[in-house]
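Fold sample X.
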Amino acid sequence: MAGFENKWIWITGASSGLGRAMALVFSKENANLILSSRNVDKLEDVRNECTGTGRKEILTLDLQSESEFPEKVDQALSFGGAIDILINNGGISQRAQAVNTQPEVARKLFEVNFFGTIELTRQVLPSMIDRNRGHIVVISSVVGKFGSPLRSTYSASKHALHGYFDSLRFEVQDNGIDVSIICPGFIQTEVSRNALTANGNPQGKMDNKTSKGLTPEEFGSKVLNAIRKRKKEAYIGKYEVLGVHVKRFLPNLFHKIISRSEVT
């Protein structure tokens, strides 16, 4: 299995949650890290937590500011001359009924979760194609495989990622480039606190099921293994990941289970 020592790994959404967890585990592998998000102070905190012998560079990035992407990609490439693995982790969740979700909120969810992600990937790809190797990793969600109440637009944005990156995988496989889609379930992060409500304000509280999910450390260990194996798709969580298979093979049962569940 491939190692990560001296590999250049660019992680978006690296200032907290899953991004922070991945930065910590890859630093232990002596990878060179490029840590991106909008919050430079939190990125500094994550960099200080990282261990290992690899370099740790900070590159601020707003996934809604696509006009800045060419400059940001050039900066990322200038650190070590290559991006071996791009981990598209930046994103935002939702907690609102579809009927109440304002159009600008729905658009923001897609701008961050989908359009920003695919455009950053598109601009990184030429450097990977030139080297005839690379690895694109996308952090989706189990609700990228099935819908759930209060997450209509969020789920739709994650479904869109699957369609795009499943297609991209076929297009770049002859260029030595792998594409992995990672689908987390409930992980103990601030994702539910930061989730957008119908008017765009953060929910401001942690969901009960999120608080009982995997720890970020457990997620980090599992995602590192999935990326090392270059898995095309991986589901990381507890019982909730079974929903992917129940929805596929027993859709009526899946509907009954979700209908009877307390969803927050």
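Fold sample Y, listed below.
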Amino acid sequence: MNPFVENSFKSRLASRRLQVGLWSSLCSNIVAEILAHSGFDWILLDTEHSPNELPGLLSQLQAMKSGHACPIVRVASNDPVLIKRVLDIGFTSILVPFIESEGEAEKAVKACLYPPAGIRGVTGSGRASQYGRHTKYLYEANDSICVILQIESLVGLNELDRIAKMDGVHGVFVGPSDLAASMGHIGNPSHVDVQKTIADAGKRLSELGIPAGILSSSEESAKRYTQWGYSFVAVGSDIGLVANGASKLVALFADE
């Protein structure tokens, strides 16, 4: 029996079907399991701005296995070693942050793929290959990997066409917060100039035929982004759900 599982997130991404996701930074296998069964199409486990380390990522990935949501991981940087390690434990969809050039895009893609297409290091006994039991893994892995590059600055957006059209790139994710900071509006991604830039990026990616993703801070902005051509949208975060839910619950009893 072939244990190889198709990357359904990658397949849906290629079809440009809307996929609703959630950002996860709480570093908890229990939270990951709850979220995976909540109806989201994908859950991103963040390692750039959260204290997620490899053993914790593995336990979260295991917890999500029986859920509906596809796991994605954002590595901390465009580092072939970091990328190799998350692939070896079984992630097949990778978000690489802060891409600003064609060369950086090529570096990220090559880190995700085995030779001759890339430079990913080889192990025959990792979890991704069912600890060596899936003997064809090395030959089939490249087809399952989904590479998403994150553009978070005006420098990156100026190179958008070259980055997005790099062979092996399956989607481009726009980061509103860092983009706002690069435009002189730190802490204010809702600024009209930032939103115009996000709308333009969505249009450009649609014209290129490249799926566009983004993180939204509200239901209103999420719906606006889908109208601008973004097809995989994080509609919130686990931290936001907990913090806002707790604050609202306390507020109900504030005058008691």
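Sample Y note: The first strand starts at residue 19 and ends at 24.
Also: The CA atoms of residues 144 and 219 lie 31 Å apart.
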